[in-house]
């Protein structure tokens, strides 16, 4: 016979799959001998059976009876006993926390008789009738689907009749009348009377919790959080205890350490003569937990001892909920507590110092997202700035600027050198130019998957969204909040990490963690820096993945090196075709003869060589992977629309459009429907004679110059957009000839690897062939994601990613975290087949995923040699690479 | 000891890997007892050993000596004997024919002494000295790399001195002087004298053939033809025989049947007193083979008997080369002969009737490319039109129109209702609009991989390119050829199947094969139609693959059904948004409110429903796969550039741009960098509420209407561009709700499958997940190729495909034949994993590859249920599907 019901004394915390998170922790506390109100857990297996068959398993009812009997015996009371009723709560509790998604019913066991027994036992008839009222209301809404408004309406009516707005002004008689009204509402909506049988109440409540697993909001939440739909929820049935039975009662929440700062010593709040929901409702002010010592020393001491025991047992910061019922302490919940990023680092190292855990374990207690958060600058709030509103922390950072209310104004002002914050009700693709121009984006509508949020995160731009208190008036170019009006040009400050909006310019403080990485602050400067230093050093010792950086200039390379980069994984050469060199590129494109083309290339050669000399110098002794030119050449020309209008207007005015006409013809000739899928990368190299040769020559000559100066340049030449080994083989042969020529002319041998990006799906699928011609692979996971999914980031991120995230089609944007099932599968195929063909193949990744925590774990388990990311992400990658090396299994790191 | 040398008497035709094609067939003829000049073959293995080690295998020399001794014994002569020299030829012969790619040396064995012996034996001193001259020239050029011009120059000098331009005017003394000059040229260029030792000549010639395997042109040819580089070539050493020793000598080529028409009876040409190369050079006119009966009845009778024997033995049309030396017949070569498309069908069925082969084998003797050729209309040349020039048959078809010389004129004239042929020196992407507007394209430069050829084939447009006799004068808007001038507006006719260009309008005759498929001509109308009917009927019985069609209208569907389509595999619905419905689509796009959007959709519903009713009626009883709307909506609006210029000009003129301004704003808002990777397909369906619902409703209501009328509609609803199962699942749930609603309202149950395109790489890689929500898959191999390779067909076909084909990066465009290694691999993954998840999953393909012969074989072996192609390709697919079912193995059909 399957066991569907576990007494709290039977389970333990390892059984989250079966008992859910809440049930497993209640069992663990019971096992530890802590004072947990007796109860039992109905397993997720029972829920799954119910959902599959549409009915409870046959054995369930008798197992509940047995468990209930044990609880009754432990409490010395009977469920719903008219004289002295045992009351229970029925709460959902799934494996993964789904806050607010499923149902709870309190006070099961009350009915027209037992309400009198509760009155007698508590000596408080208002309390008893209020408890009964709450039962009918929660049960009616949750179990029997009575519209909540019906009850609210009746309650509001009673208060209005009494001339008050406060529940507390209702006395026992009022509440009794409300109970009558509620029962009538119930039977009208449901078609039968509110069930008086406590056991019937219990079974209906359990079934309602089972059903709530498939409620629409729960389904949506699971899709978004990627929680498997087949898990089901457990149900916890637990004896009710009451903190609102007088001054010797109360309720509280506490942490074993300060979750905000990581400071040692317990931390919490207490509210006398109150139930848990009152704390949340914030009706009365709580007192610091320490005050309980005065109020009830015995309970306080017992609580302190329990918290020490729990922390020692869980070996981590715990948070708890407790209730004191007439001087008796009851533990209602515990779990490993959430904490701020700084606290995470500090607590982890404290626990090491206390001998509780070792450094390997400490490393698993922090993560790259936390480290990244610590690297953002933050506002110095010591000046007590005016707080305007709270929104959602959509994209982290601290931004200050003049408020502007449309995209055009934003670009104008930014072009005039002003720092601006773009304020909108919500954004659309039309706002893109303004979003690019602004320091930050603030919206009054939309959640973390709104257009503004998704696009800002994609751009790495500070964003606060959904600040609903703002009344944004676009036509009037202003917003008002709480009586204050902010007009265009007024300075505001927004904090994308906290969602807070302030008036005026708030000073921005640099991150001490960044200062430590920069070397301007010592490793023991403060507790946080010391903790970061210790854990990242440990990660460096543990990690198998190398960490390189994406850098296009000597300056970027130097900074990345200070941040711990062990080479450059991606040096983009197209940036070397911009600025004052654009004119040479135009000459190259507009060349009528091969000779003109050669002249333009020859003029570019020394400029590129100079760039490489700088980069090799900054990265001396470390590998530098140079990607040959990738974008289509027409990207170096002015936009089609602009030229077309200029030429048309010049002709209309009888003027000579001159050079514009030549450029327009070239743009027309080179126009591509889908430039991302056009003449770029290796295709350019194969079609335009001499282009790649010039770049390879610049690299080789720069290396020679460095070697002659005593340096140690390590060039890796990377060919972009290869889809077939024949492409790479052709380029490789030409590049080798150039390297040989430079070596012969200079008398210096140039050691250089030749390899390829793996960024076209076909390259991944034919990696075994391509490895025959490649000394290294570097995954370009941006393009691999774009082509593998068939969407271009620029076009789709704003157009539908928000909708996709809301609908749960994505759990997370595949541009943020690598899509393991699809794109990751190609990575794994290419690693396996590339190495099979060439066992010493070097393999890395240089897409933006290289700095994403979850993706770093994926790349570690996929067996890559290194990741490469932007300089600021290098520490994050180092930390996560260390953590990945300690992952228990090759499973993902969810 | 490895055997590197095979006497012709030792091998047979199965040994092409080892002996090459030519050697294997010489051995086969020897084995059959035919009069083959004695000789031997040095194996491909010897070549491979030589190329790997840079030297001949040690055993080779003695094995050649043994084989040479056997030949000498058979001929009763010694190699290079001064009194009566045995002469040999040395010829390459690889497994796959590489015409003209590698080297040949004739007359090995001649030297300063043996030339006298040859004179004595032949009684012809001019012949002997001419033979010696030829040896030095061929040997010098081929073996010792003397520039060919050096010899040409000396020969021309001698002719000039004699005041002639004809070799035949040189007498023995002249030729003797030229031999002296040649020997001097040889030693000057090579550094030592022309080798007099016949054995040394032989060994040097063999080595030169080995080396020619890696000559640049051979490498390029192999890359283009996808012939593996490691095969190596065999070398055939064969006794020379001479057809130019008098009236009782001669040479000829013959076929066992007419390769042009398939008519029974031998067919060939004979040239008395000549060598093989004289036939090719066309210096004298050949006579029909039948005339040989008068000249030399014994040889003729022997030849007839040999040809009958060969055809019986090879069970197929054979072509042969032979020489008669003083009344003695020698067989120099045989192989299964090439033939025209019509002859292929006719001969295959003749051989069945003759009891030589069965129908299964006959089916393997024809192919879809031949059938496709028979389906093009052709010119009726009975009026003896003026032939202007020959070019390359770049893209088949027969096109007639007025010559125009630039793209702009072509579009203007076409817009005015004129049929035009675009004539250019060569085309560039600028010419694209004109190419689209023209009936056909004619160029004077460029090969079959030129821009014109690649783009025209991609468009299915008639093209003749590289017609070098044309002198095209773009500025003068004319071309001249052979003294004739064709000006703009003059009518010309071009035949893309033969490469011929004619003056004036030639009547175009419909293909009788098409008339047979259309049902306007009976299956026994003529020999060709009867043969096609017989073989395609046999293919239908044999094939495992279903054949459907891509059709968007009832008319197309009906035609395809006559052509044998068994349903529609792709019905594109976006065409239903064009024409006079465009205004509704604009309303949908510009809608400010959901209500306006709904109104626009409601107006489209009955129109779409009407389209589906027609299609269901045409395909009654057969499945109709309808693809929901795929392209981005902005494709239904006017182009950005056009609108921008119109608005700018209106403003400049102080006019109100009106609706253009609204449209421009919409186009700006919806503009995408890469529309192929933008908001289209399922993404549109998920983002625009009601769009897919409207289409599903139109399909369902049309099905209901047909059912009520007694019809049998079989709808399959196909969702485009799915990349993740969550997308499909969401659409599927909504579609099912609409189907249920229509069923409830109408009281008629609508049976419909819901499935998806597999056209995004990620869909193929997660096919196991996607199959959970799909009742069928249809591979969109066009998009899968575009995204898998990362190139958009529109942008790249003209920009670099020609270059890629030339450089051998492609053997064939991946848009013509599916790329088995890359894109095909995704197809195989998706088939295996889709079926594993859902064993009854229906799988087809609806990309253009569905009608490509080689691709059809691939899809058969990949295990698909059906292919779908354009109506005209349906017979090709039927034939190839039948052939694929008879493939000996799952290997590809190269």
Automatic annotation (TrEMBL), chains A, B:
Pyruvate phosphate dikinase AMP/ATP-binding domain span: 17-53, 58-285, 291-342
Amino-acid positions noted as binding substrate in the UniProt annotation, renumbered to this chain: 572, 627, 759, 780-783
Residue numbers annotated as active site: 451 (tele-phosphohistidine intermediate), 846 (proton donor)
InterPro entries: ATP_grasp_subdomain_1 (IPR013815), PEP-util_enz_mobile_dom (IPR008279), PEP_util_AS (IPR018274), PEP_util_C (IPR000121), Phosphohistidine_dom_sf (IPR036637), PPDK_AMP/ATP-bd (IPR002192), Pyruvate_phosphate_dikinase (IPR010121), Pyrv/PenolPyrv_kinase-like_dom (IPR015813)
Annotated SUPFAM superfamilies: Glutathione synthetase ATP-binding domain-like, Phosphoenolpyruvate/pyruvate domain, Phosphohistidine domain
Binding, Mg(2+): 759, 783
Cofactor: Mg(2+)
Domain PEP-utilising enzyme mobile: 418-499
Pfam families given in the database record: PEP-utilizers, PEP-utilizers_C, PPDK_N
EC class of the enzyme, as a word: transferase
Reaction equations catalysed: pyruvate + phosphate + ATP = phosphoenolpyruvate + AMP + diphosphate + H(+)
PEP-utilising enzyme C-terminal domain mapped to chain residues: 538-881
EC number: 2.7.9.1
A GO MF label: kinase activity
Keywords: ATP-binding, Kinase, Magnesium, Metal-binding, Nucleotide-binding, Pyruvate, Transferase
Stored NCBIfam families: PRK05878.1, pyru_phos_dikin
Family: Belongs to the PEP-utilizing enzyme family.
Protein name according to UniProt: Pyruvate, phosphate dikinase
Gene source species: Natronosporangium hydrolyticum
